[in-house]
Structures are given as C-alpha cells and as structure tokens.
Write a structure and sequence with these properties.
It is built from 3 helices and no strands. It is mostly helical. The longest helix is centred in the N-terminal third of the chain and has 48 residues, at about 1-50. It is elongated and about 70 Å long.
C-alpha cells in the first residue's frame, strides 16, 4: 500500500508542478499583452500629437523581442513531453556508458 501512496504522491507533485508552470505562463502572457498594448497606445498618442511625423512603429521591437520569450515559455510549458525528455535522458545515459566502457 505504501508503494501506491508514493506513486500517488509523485503523480500529484508532477501535476502540481505542471499546473504551476501553466499558471506562470498565463501570467507571463497577460503581462505581455497589457504592457505591449500600453506601448502601442503610447506610440499612437505620440504620433497623433506630433501631427503624423512620428509614425514609425517602434513598438514592434519590444513586441517581437518579448514575443520570442513568450513563445519559448510556451514551448517549455506545452511543447516538451515527459516521454520525449525521458528518451533523451536514456540516449544520453547510453552514450555515457559506451564512452566509459571504451
């Protein structure tokens, strides 16, 4: 019975860790949207007040740069499966064993 309880605890811990990662990603995405919306609004107001002389869309630089970070965060949370990770770990262990036996 103790082995089953340990397995359930490990599974729960894994689920909690994944849920925390999803929550962290959602917070990151929300902050990204809010801040970049604010930057676009600043650009729009300045461009309108300046009479159209400042229409260069400078906000695309933080939008794109930070967007890469958001995409990588999404990949880390949703794109990597535990099975794939385990296969890579096993492959690396096999390489190390082969190297040690030479």
């Amino acid at each position: 019975m103790n082995g089953q309880t340990d397995q359930q605890d490990k599974l729960r811990h894994k689920a909690e860790k994944h849920v925390d990662a999803v929550i962290g990603f959602r917070q990151h995405l929300l902050i990204y949207v809010i801040v970049n919306t604010f930057l676009v609004l600043i650009w729009l107001v300045v461009a309108l007040v300046a009479g159209g002389g400042s229409w260069f869309p400078w906000f695309i630089f933080p939008l794109a740069g930070w967007g890469i970070g958001v995409i990588m965060h999404a990949w880390a949370v949703f794109g990597q499966s535990e099975d794939k990770r385990e296969r890579l770990v096993q492959r690396e262990l096999e390489k190390m064993r082969t190297k040690d036996n030479q």
